[in-house]
Design brief:
- It holds the Pfam family DUF7924.
- InterPro entries: DUF7924.
- There is one protein chain.
- By secondary structure, the protein is α+β, with helices and mostly antiparallel strands.
- The protein is built from twelve helices and nine strands.
- The protein has one domain.
- The strands form two sheets. Strands 1-9-8-7-6-5-4 form a seven-stranded mixed beta sheet, with helices on both faces. The protein has a two-stranded antiparallel ribbon with strand order 2-3.
- Helix 9 links the parallel strand 6 and strand 7.
């Protein structure tokens, strides 16, 4: 790994001016890639050779074909794309992902959340409409399939406990509440901000550098649907959500801190393509949130997690759907530190089965409720902590500037005032 960048408030582009000088550009880009930004103090790394990589996720390059054996015709092969993602540290159902305490806890929490009970019982009318409409739309193109089927699955309102919003309500009272009121927003076919898709750094290793160069060019994520929050959800923490960390807050421009992405395929599409697309998108979500957490002073634990540690995705075609959870992992072994981004399967659904469609309805609504509920509450706390650190840093820089200005004398003050503002 390249040497970790110095972590001082003044040298941190996220805590200073939003622009980055040309001298800082390379470091800034590397920080955003996710391989430089570590929440724990890393030990001195050893070179990322193929042998060293094998210590962490098996020999990731052993299944790759000869570096020179690929041509442009294989670039769209989903199996080749999957291998390329794994080479860059974006892992799909990695066997080692659940061997750590943190990985186990994140996966179990995600499973419990997705399968949790809903206050609203299944609507027989909705299930019948979904299955019958599915039969009509199975031959439609991707855009039509998405538009028609998703509006049946996700209504504009959902059932919530009234007491949560009205202290005077009874314990068993339920009300229908709009998602929009709780700041849920979405974007359709919106490309993510560039620069946050993680990847490995060859650190001068010729063999690995050649492999990465041959298999470079991962596409920037552009999910069919992305769910996040409205800007007015962050009024309590000042302007930080809209100005100081604009790119990090709006990874999907127009919504804030997205937590759930959906990739659709038509009957002509390949669901493995959708999985590969979701793995990139999920990696960006967890990578960008990790950078924000680091700036807030939240250190990653080997055993514990918080509600910013993971995100969700859903892939579906006219026949089936699958839910996944994504998280970031820092592995350290034999003095080598590598960051991996996991995508792990939670549950599968057959869309021609009403019972299965109801489980999908429950899963999707539970994820959305989590995003506008517990996760939003955690996010507000984290951003308030980040704002406090930012204000403290700004105050320190201001005080240092004032002290320096006082020592200049009149001549210096005059020279300074005539310069650029």
């Amino acid at each position: 790994m390249a040497a970790k960048r110095k972590r001082t408030e003044d040298s941190n582009p996220l805590l200073n001016d939003s622009t980055t000088s040309s001298a800082e550009g390379s470091a800034g880009k590397k920080a955003r890639s996710g391989c430089e930004v570590l929440l724990t103090e890393p030990v001195s790394p050893t070179p990322l050779t193929e042998a060293n990589l094998a210590l962490f996720a098996g020999n990731m390059t052993s299944n790759m074909k000869s570096v020179d054996s690929y041509d442009s015709g294989t670039a769209k092969d989903p199996n080749y794309v999957r291998e390329k993602l794994e080479l860059h540290g974006i892992l799909f159902n990695d066997a080692n992902a659940l061997t750590t305490q943190r990985g186990k806890k994140i996966f179990e929490a995600a499973k419990d959340l997705v399968a949790g009970d809903r206050l609203s019982p299944p609507s027989k009318k909705m299930l019948e409409e979904f299955v019958s409409t599915l039969q009509e739309e199975q031959g439609s193109n991707e855009a039509t399939f998405m538009d028609v089927m998703w509006h049946i699955l996700v209504a504009s309102r959902r059932s919530v406990k009234a007491k949560h919003y009205d202290p005077g309500a009874g314990d068993d009272d339920v009300l229908r509440r709009k998602w929009k009121v709780d700041h849920l927003r979405h974007r359709v076919d919106q490309e993510f901000v560039r620069g946050y898709l993680p990847g490995l750094d060859p650190n001068g290793e010729a063999t690995l550098a050649k492999l990465l160069a041959k298999h470079a060019g991962m596409k920037n994520p552009k999910p069919d649907l992305a769910y996040g929050l409205a800007q007015d959800a962050f009024k309590e923490v000042g302007s930080i959500a809209s100005s100081d960390h604009r790119d990090l807050a709006q990874i999907s421009p127009g919504i804030y801190h997205p937590f759930f992405i959906i990739e659709f395929k038509s009957h002509k599409g390949d669901l493995m393509d959708a999985m590969n697309q979701a793995s990139r998108g999920g990696a960006v979500l967890t990578n960008s949130m990790n950078i924000l957490k680091q700036e807030a002073g939240i250190k990653e634990s080997a055993d514990e997690y918080d509600l910013g540690s993971f995100a969700f995705s859903l892939v579906l075609d006219p026949f089936s759907a699958k839910t996944y959870v994504h998280w970031r992992e820092l592995r350290i072994k034999n003095d080598t530190s590598i960051v991996y981004h996991h995508m792990h399967f939670i549950d599968g659904y057959i869309l021609e089965s009403k019972e299965s469609v109801d489980r999908l309805r429950i899963a999707v609504n539970n994820i959305l409720d989590w995003g506008v509920g517990k996760r939003k509450t955690w996010l507000l706390g984290m951003l308030a902590q980040l704002e406090a650190r930012y204000q403290e840093s700004a105050s320190t820089r201001s005080s240092a500037g004032s002290t320096k200005g006082k020592g200049k004398g009149k001549g210096s003050e005059k020279a300074s005032s005539s310069g650029k503002s």
